[in-house]
Amino acid sequence: MIGKDSMYKIDYLLVGVVVLIVAIGTLMIYSGGFDPVDKINNGIYRKQLLWFVFGFIIMIGMTIINYQQLGDYSLHIYGILIVVLLFTTIFGSPIRNTRAWLSFGFFSIQPSEFMKLGLVIVLGKFLELRERDMRHFRELLIPSLLTLVPIIIVIMQPDFGTSVIFIPILFTMLFVGGADVTHLFSIIAIAAIALIVPMILTYREWAGAEGSNFLLDFFKDVNMLFIVSGGLLFISLVSFLVHFFFPNKILRKVYVPSIVVSLGLFSSVLIQTLFKEYQKQRIIVFLNPDLDPHASGYNIIQSKIAIGSGGFFGKGFLKGTQSQLGFLPEKTSDFIFSVVAEEWGFLGSIVLIILLGIVVFRGIQIAVEAKDKFGALVASGITSIFFFHILINIGMVIGIMPVTGLPLCFVSYGGSNLIMSMIGIGILINIRMRKFVY
Amino acid sequence: MSQTSLKTRMLEAFRARMYVFSSIVAIMFLVLVIQLINLQLIHGGEYKSKSRSNMESYVPIPASRGVLYDRTYKQGGENVVVVSNRPSFNITTKADKFATEKELYTVLKAICRLLEVDFRDIKKDIKSKNSWERVIIKEDVGFDTVVKIASNQHIFAHIDWEDAPVRVYNFSNMFSHLVGYIGSISKKEYKRLRSKGYKRYQKIGKTGIEKKYDDLLRGKDGFVRRIVDVRNRTEGEEVGLHPLAGNNLILTVDYEIQKASYEAMGEMKGSVVVLKPSTGEVLALVSKPDFNPNQVISKNNYKIFKELYNNKNKPFLNRVIQAKYPPASTFKLLTAIAALETEKTYASKRYYCPGKWVLKGYTDKDFYCYGVHGSNDLHWAIARSCSVYFYQLGYKTGPTSILKYANYFGLGERTGIDLPGEVASFIPSKKWKLKEKGHSWYDGDTINLSIGQGFLAITPIAIANFVAGIVNNGIVYSPKLVKEIRSPDNKKLVRHFEREKMREIPLSPFTLNTVKQGMRMSVLNGTSIRLRSLKVPAAGKTGTAQTRSKRLDKYSQHAWFVGFAPFGGAPENSVVVAVIVEYGIAGAATAVPVAEKIFTTMYNQGYFK
Fold first, then answer.
1. Edge-to-edge strands, sheet with B159-163
2. Could you read off the pLDDT of A60-83 as tens digits, one per residue?
3. Which end of chain A is more exposed for a tag (fewer CB within 10 A), N or C?
4. What are phi and psi of B116, to 5 degrees?
5. Is the CB of B22 less than 8 angstroms away from the CB of A361?
6. B287 - beta bridge partners?
7. Which position has the higher pLDDT, A170 or A220?
8. Which chain A residue has the Cα nearest residue B48?
9. CB pairs below 8 Å between A and B: how many?
């Protein structure tokens, strides 16, 4: 067990920065909860503070047990969370048409938030065990399945935004865990080709773009895509067979890209034909909100106005017209960063981004310095949770990422996300503390 | 050993990958910062103005439009207000304020139910406009309705209201063609007038005085800058620019005479114009059928407008200045003038009327008179309107002379009255006939011309102005309807309109006296005998215009009367009345009684004292 002196090794920098970020967030929730016409505050900032105190206690609690025990019980944790998640999806109380919440009277929790940590722990354990075999393609199967199960359950809630976050966590952990880079890139390339081709076509058609060129005509022709895809598949099979009997490095450079492009094109044809036009259009509105100034595009346009109009110094605390007059939607949750940027300007946004950056880089540092592979994997997994929330959330509100509805960790209003994040910090501190103990 | 080296190798690989991961993280953070720089520092100003336009809504404060008084206006007195304004509101919205189309239609349905407006009409209106353009849901709504909307902003989100004083035409139909009406500026008008500061939402005079003097009446709108939240609840407001009221106008029209003329016409189709020869001031101007400008101006009553517009009796037509008729026997005055100016002795020349006259030629042609008048001199010929007399007089005088005098009086032109849309009267010429009809001028044309039939087409205002020229001894002023422009508070006289001389015709006193005498005898013992009992000595000339309607392929008659009073008085005190009744039974029977009522009223009003 850990000695009394190791308490000195608590990461005060990390805790201090987190407290600062939560303080900023709470101020912004206060600001966003203020109704200028009715002159009253809805008071949810108090609830957030309560969640923070609660989360802080759990964080301290998380430092006491040895994180390695999390690995021992990783399957139990994962299994219990999956069951709770499934239960929520079936029996949860629907809020805004989403069964993502388990209600306990005066408060409710969102199990999908804790699932993120559960996934990180189970992947950490699995990847630690298979550390030496990770270069084999088949070893990607089980981590992918472990990730796919919560994704499918969360999509059924349906909560598209939360389900998306599991994928970058998986890829980060596979990468850190030593998976073959070619394998990872191939998978990413297939997905990219499968999505980008139909999106470009739909976008051009919808936006009424004129003209055509050889490449566009080619992508529009479904039969042609099938032929090319089949042809490439044939080439890759042949070269793979030859490679199998007469190993040759050049052949590997032929069959891997050709099967990637082949599968990519094949999936793109499937998406082209299976998805309805409006479904594809909806994804495009994520990408270019100006196309649909009503509905989801409206939020991003208003968010960009809020951020841009903040200028360098901002409009002042409680003085952001976009947020105070209600033009900015979801201003205490998904779009809270826009409130920071509007009221405190570029200066405030940069400070917040730097603070968030400190958390992420401290996490990476903890992962690098961890005493074992499990610690390193869990630390990088937790860090990736923070990082991708930050990237996707801020990217969304500043208009360079699709609208997915992910909160900004430590800042957005919401108990489950805050407590999950505090647990994550607790585990990070834990890993850091124990690097000194052998 | 190999175990350790594998471990070291794996540790190195892990570290390398962590470096890659941190680099990706760093790059992504950099991307976020770059986009922040782009939004807040590079495009900050642009977004600032966007956020301002989000929360600021500019609500126009309409300028109060000028008020119209009749000629009896006295400062500080109790005056006859012909056109004024009353406070009212418009209910409006803008489509781009709504987040979704569904929300827009939900709110619209609710407001349409409250205002009792057809939802489909508004939907159509919204679809035809840009989303940022303001759409009027209902005009002329009371304050109580505004309160209802304001206190239920959760239901009626983004529904706005604005001050929109409604024009009140106090005497409804009585002044319809004279004052005209106002309406929303059309796309065409907007294109033309945009440079003059006209705005798309404004109203503009469409006809009559409202159109002619629009730039004086309209004033200049101000605006209120409102700070609103996303639900359009008002956070605060300040006046950005105070409106400037329009000028008031004092008309030359006398309410009592206008009323008498209007009532005298009853349900008959036609028109009346009363004017003062010595100044050109119009005392009354009535055209029938008419319309109620109060109904026409409201967007809510578009159906009434359309019905009037398509009515085959053409109620929007101002028959005083926009309808042309053959002048018929009223033109005999001109034939007489032309004859007398060529040869004085015609005054005592007698012709015998057996009821018809034969024009000798290659084939003889009969021209009929409407009665048998026996032997008459020129006075009696005017008094009895004997056509046979004028056939011969005109034939003797010749078309050149008659047409020359018609042109002197400007009967082929516009009178220049200050109303929009006046049409020019028409007098033929030999050249015109050859060009248009392909024939040279026949003697028959001269015969027709001398009794005012044939190709002549004259507006009532032109006939009135012609007789005004006779009364005024050859001097013709252009008719006008506005006497004074006053400041919005009436305290300052901005401009007094002086009379405007149009032409001076050299006519001998003998000619003028002979014609006036003939017109007097028409009252004493001729076609206008009905006016003999008037308390003021009047003089006049009737006419019965025959037109052949191409459309209906049948003949119809229009009854004319044009006259003046007092006979023998100074031109400064004289007043000319011209009446035409369409499809009337001869001038004497239908037009003269109208004139009689007008003269009586004027006498009672003290015009001839």
1. B134-141, B89-94, B159-163
2. 999 988 999 999 999 999 999 999
3. C
4. 55, 55
5. yes
6. B271
7. A170
8. A309
9. 135
Please indicate whether, in this complex, the C-beta atoms of B41 and A346 are within 8 angstroms of each other: yes
* DSSP codes, B260-309: HHHHHHTT-SEEEEEE-TTT-BEEEEEEES---HHHHT-GGGHHHHHHHH
Interface test with B, best of A301, A388, A398 (most B CBs within 10 A): A398
Mutate to test the interface with B, among A302, A319, A325, A371 (most CBs of B within 10 A): A325
Distance CA B519, CA B531 (A): 11
Instruction: Indicate whether B264 pLDDT > 70.
Output: yes
For B326, B333, B528, B583, the CA distances from B544, given in Å and listed in that order, are 9, 14, 13, 10
Take residue A68 and report the two structure tokens written for it.
């390695």
Structure-model confidence comparison of residues A211 and A404, the more confident one: A404
pLDDT tens, residue by residue, B19-44: 999 999 999 999 999 999 999 999 99
Alpha-carbon distance of A304 to B39, in angstroms, equals 7
Q: Which of residues 51-110 of B touch A (CB under 8 A)?
A: 51-52, 54-55, 96, 98-101
- CB pair distance less than 8 Å for A400 and B15: no
DSSP state, residue B490: S
Round to whole Å and give the CA distance between B296 and B168.
11
Tokens at B124, concatenated: 């159509």
- The whole-angstrom distance between residue B201's C-alpha and the CA centroid of its chain comes to 21
Cβ atoms of A116 and A427 closer than 8 Å: no
Check CB contact under 8 Å for B48 and A311.
Answer: yes
Question: Is the Cα dihedral A58, A64, A65, A70 positive or negative?
Answer: positive
Cβ contact, residue pair B50, A361, below 8 Å: no
Residues of A in contact with B54 (CB under 8 A): 302, 305, 321-322, 325, 327
Q: Is the pLDDT of residue A1 over 50?
A: no
Please name the member of B35, B47, B96 whose beta carbon is closest to the beta carbon of A309. Answer: B47
**What gap in Å lies between CA A299 and CA A291, rounded to an integer?**
13
CB within 8 Å: A312 and B41: yes
User: Which of these, A257, A265, A261, A264, lies nearest to A240 by C-alpha position?
Assistant: A257
Q: What are phi and psi of B64, to 5 degrees?
A: -75, 125
Q: pLDDT, tens digit, for every residue of A141-167?
A: 999 999 999 999 998 888 878 888 999
Q: Strands B248-251 and B68-69: what pairing?
A: parallel
- If one compares B450 and A106, the residue with the highest pLDDT of the two is B450
* Average pLDDT value for chain A: 87
CB contact under 8 A, A321 and B55: yes
ipTM of the predicted structure? 0.91
